[in-house]
Write a structure and sequence with these properties.
Length: about 90
């Protein structure tokens, strides 16, 4: 079952809605809840790798495209979130 199918199955089971960033299923970390809204959470570095590997962008092009078209865009309530930092665990 694909990641998108897994999310769709979870949404059907829980009667929740979630917005996904098309084409970045491989970078989806999971879902989070903020108040009554479910948010898809994406790994920024994985998204950039997808743009480089899938779309043939240079790292610089991927950074610019992602910052403007994905991370910098809002589609209203439930806009997916991007994980930009995580702590190093000992």
């Amino acid at each position: 079952m694909s990641v998108r199918e897994q999310v769709e199955a979870w949404c059907a089971e829980t009667e929740q809605e979630v917005l996904l960033a098309d084409g970045f299923e491989g970078a989806l970390i999971g879902l989070a809840q903020q108040f009554n809204t479910i948010l898809a959470i994406y790994d920024r570095d994985a998204c950039l790798r997808i743009l480089v590997e899938r779309d043939g962008m240079t790292p610089e092009e991927a950074e610019e495209f992602f910052a403007f078209n994905v991370q910098g865009s809002s589609v209203g309530e439930g806009t997916p979130a991007v994980l930009v930092w995580r702590p190093v665990r000992a």
